[in-house]
C-alpha cells in the first residue's frame, strides 16, 4: 500500500506542477484601424457624460409614449428573441459540459451473472485454457454477484480541457452579444415600422384633405359648366383628378395594414391583436450624441460578439496542439464480488485496483497537423470577420450621420417648394376663374402641390428612420461591460443583465 500511496502522490505532484501549463498561444486582441473622428459629424452634437443614450430604453429619446409602450412588449413576446435567448442558454450549457472534464468520472453498477463452464475445457497449471476431447470434470452452474465502483480521471497536463473551457466561455459571451444585437435589431425594426406607419398616416391625412379640396374644385367646375363658362372636358378632368387622389388614399391603407401586421409579429402577437389609431407624424428627430469612433468598439454588441469569437477560435488552437502530447489518465476500481449473495457484501469479498495510464499517438497520417492548421485558419478568419464588422459599423454611423444632415437640408428646401406650389395653385385657380387659363393649368398646379406635400411628408419620415438607424448603429446605449463574465456564463442561472 505504501508504494501505491507514493505513486498516487507522485502523480498528483506532476499534475499540480503542470497545472499552469497550457499549450497554444494566449489570446491578445488584434488591433483595428480606428479614425480619430467621424467625417460626417462636422457640426454634429458632441457626446457629454450626462448626455448619453438611455441604456436599453433608447427609444425614449423620441418622446413618444405610444412607441415606449409598444417597445416594452418586444422583450416579452418576440419569438425570434426567445430563440436567441435559448441559443445563449445552450452556449452556457456547453461551458458547463466542457468544465465537467476537470473532475473525475465515477460510475457505480450492480451486476449478476449465471454461468456454466464447458466440460470439454480444462485449465492447465499456468492458467491457460486447453481443449480436451472427453469431459474432464463435472461442472455445475455458478452465480457471480458484483458491485463495482469505477473512477477515471484525465489529468489536464497540457491544458486541453482548460483551452476547451476557455473557448466555450468566449463562445457563450459571443452568444450573449448576439442576443443583445438581436434585441437591438428587433427594437429598431419596430421603431422603423412605427415611424413609417406615422408617415403613412400623415400622407393619408394629406390625401383626405386634398380629396376635400378637389371635391370643391369639381363642384366649382360643374357650376361653371352649368353656366356655360367651362367645358365638359374641364368637368371630366376634375373628376379624374379626384378619383385618382381617392385611389391613392385607399392604397395608403393597404401599406398601413401591412406595417401594423409586421409590428404585431415583432411583439409576438397575431396581427389581429393589434390595432393602432391613426397618429400622423409631426415630431422632429432627436439630437443624438455620437461620441468618438473608438467608443464604437465598446458600444456595439455585434462587435463584442465578433471579438469574443476571436478568443474562442484562438483557444481552439491550444486544443489542437494539446493532441500532440500524451494523455495521462488515473483510473481506480473497487467494490464487492462473490459467487454467493449471502457473502456478497462481506469484507473478504472486497476487491480493488488502481493505476495510471499513459497513451500517445505515434502515427495519425497528418491528422493532428491538419487539425492545428484548421484551427489557425479559423482564428485568422475570425480576425478578418471582426475587422470587417468594425468597418461596417463605422460605415453605418457615417451613412446615417450623412443622411440626417442632408435630409435636414432637403426638408428645409422642400418646405419652401411646398409654399411655392401652394401659391401657384392659388394664382392659377384665380386665373382660371377669370377665364385667362384653361383648367388643365389648374390640374397641373394642384398635382405639383400635392406631389410636393407628399414628398415633404416622406422626407420627415426618412429623417425619423435615419435617426433610429443611427441609434442602432451606435449600439442603442449598450456597452461591452454588460457582457456576462466568464464566471457568469459558467453558472446555470442566466445573468441578471440578460433577463429582461
What global shape is seen? elongated
Q: Kindly state the mean pLDDT as a whole number? A: 89
Compute the separation of the termini in Å: 58 Å
Question: Rg, please?
Answer: 38 Å
Helix content: 55-70%
Task: Please tell me the total number of domains.
Answer: 2
State the name of the first-level CATH class of the largest domain: Mainly Alpha
CATH topology of the largest domain: Outer membrane efflux proteins (OEP)
CATH H-tier superfamily of the largest domain: Outer membrane efflux proteins (OEP)
Q: Count of DSSP E strands?
A: 7
Please identify the structural class as seen in this structure.
alpha+beta
Secondary structure tally, helices: 10
- Helix and strand pattern: HHHEEEEEHHHHEEHHH
The largest sheet, given as strand count, sense and whether it forms a barrel, is: 5 strands, antiparallel
Strand content: 5-15%
Extract low-pLDDT stretches: 1-9, 11-18
CATH architecture of the largest domain: Up-down Bundle
What can you tell me about this protein's structure?
The chain is an alpha+beta fold. The protein folds into two domains: about 25-100 and about 160-325 and about 365-500, Outer membrane efflux proteins (OEP); about 105-155 and about 325-360, Outer membrane efflux proteins (OEP). It is about 60% helix and about 10% strand. It contains ten helices and seven strands. Strands 1, 2, 5, 6 and 7 form a five-stranded antiparallel beta sheet that branches. Strands 3-4 form a two-stranded antiparallel sheet. Strand 3 and strand 4 form a beta hairpin. Helix 3 packs antiparallel against helix 4 (about 160-225), helix 4 (about 160-225) runs antiparallel to helix 5 (about 230-265) and helix 4 runs antiparallel to helix 7 (about 300-320). The chain is elongated, with a radius of gyration of 38 Å. The relative contact order is 0.16. Mean pLDDT is about 90; it is low at about 1-10 and about 10-20.
Amino acid at each position: 500500500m505504501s508504494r501505491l500511496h507514493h505513486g498516487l502522490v507522485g502523480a498528483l505532484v506532476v499534475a499540480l506542477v503542470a497545472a499552469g501549463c497550457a499549450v497554444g498561444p494566449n489570446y491578445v486582441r488584434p488591433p483595428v484601424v480606428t479614425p480619430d473622428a467621424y467625417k460626417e459629424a462636422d457640426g454634429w452634437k458632441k457626446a457629454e457624460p450626462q448626455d448619453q443614450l438611455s441604456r436599453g430604453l433608447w427609444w425614449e429619446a423620441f418622446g413618444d409614449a405610444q412607441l415606449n409602450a409598444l417597445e416594452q412588449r418586444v422583450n416579452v413576446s418576440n419569438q425570434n428573441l426567445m430563440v436567441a435567448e435559448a441559443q445563449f442558454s445552450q452556449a452556457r450549457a456547453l461551458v458547463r459540459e466542457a468544465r465537467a472534464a476537470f473532475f473525475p468520472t465515477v460510475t457505480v453498477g450492480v451486476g449478476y451473472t449465471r454461468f456454466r463452464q464447458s466440460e470439454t475445457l480444462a485449465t492447465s497449471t499456468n492458467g491457460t485454457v486447453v481443449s480436451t476431447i472427453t469431459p474432464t470434470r463435472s461442472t455445475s452452474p455458478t452465480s457471480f454477484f458484483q458491485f463495482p465502483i469505477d473512477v477515471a480521471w484525465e489529468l489536464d497536463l497540457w491544458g486541453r480541457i482548460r483551452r476547451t473551457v476557455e473557448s466555450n466561455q468566449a463562445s457563450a459571451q459571443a452568444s450573449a452579444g448576439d442576443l443583445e444585437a438581436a434585441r437591438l435589431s428587433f427594437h429598431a425594426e419596430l421603431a422603423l415600422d412605427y415611424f413609417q406607419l406615422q408617415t403613412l398616416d400623415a400622407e393619408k391625412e394629406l390625401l383626405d384633405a386634398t380629396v376635400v379640396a378637389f371635391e370643391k374644385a369639381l363642384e366649382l367646375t360643374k357650376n361653371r359648366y352649368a353656366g356655360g363658362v367651362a367645358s365638359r372636358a374641364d368637368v371630366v378632368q376634375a373628376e379624374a383628378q379626384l378619383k385618382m387622389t381617392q385611389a391613392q388614399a385607399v392604397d395608403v391603407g393597404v401599406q398601413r395594414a401591412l406595417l401594423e401586421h409586421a409590428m404585431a409579429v415583432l411583439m409576438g402577437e397575431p396581427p389581429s391583436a393589434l390595432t393602432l389609431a391613426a397618429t400622423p407624424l409631426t415630431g422632429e428627430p432627436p439630437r443624438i450624441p455620437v461620441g468618438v469612433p473608438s467608443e464604437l468598439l465598446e458600444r456595439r454588441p455585434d462587435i463584442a460578439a465578433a471579438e469574443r469569437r476571436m478568443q474562442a477560435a484562438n483557444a481552439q488552437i491550444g486544443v489542437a496542439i494539446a493532441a500532440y502530447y500524451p494523455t495521462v489518465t488515473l483510473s481506480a476500481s473497487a467494490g464487492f464480488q462473490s459467487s454467493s449473495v449471502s457473502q456478497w457484501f462481506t469484507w473478504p469479498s472486497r476487491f480493488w485496483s488502481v493505476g495510471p495510464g499513459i497513451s500517445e499517438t505515434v502515427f495519425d497520417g497528418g491528422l493532428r497537423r491538419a487539425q492545428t492548421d484548421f484551427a489557425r485558419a479559423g482564428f485568422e478568419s475570425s480576425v478578418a470577420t471582426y475587422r470587417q464588422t468594425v468597418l461596417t459599423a463605422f460605415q453605418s454611423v457615417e451613412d446615417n450621420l450623412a443622411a440626417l444632415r442632408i435630409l435636414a437640408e432637403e426638408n428645409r428646401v422642400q418646405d419652401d417648394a411646398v409654399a411655392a406650389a401652394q401659391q401657384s395653385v392659388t394664382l392659377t385657380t384665380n386665373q382660371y376663374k377669370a377665364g385667362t387659363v384653361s383648367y388643365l393649368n389648374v390640374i397641373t398646379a394642384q398635382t405639383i402641390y400635392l406631389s410636393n406635400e407628399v414628398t415633404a411628408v416622406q422626407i420627415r419620415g426618412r429623417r425619423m428612420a435615419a435617426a433610429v438607424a443611427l441609434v442602432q448603429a451606435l449600439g442603442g446605449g449598450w456597452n461591452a461591460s454588460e457582457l456576462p463574465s466568464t464566471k457568469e456564463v459558467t453558472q446555470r442561472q442566466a445573468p441578471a443583465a440578460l433577463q429582461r
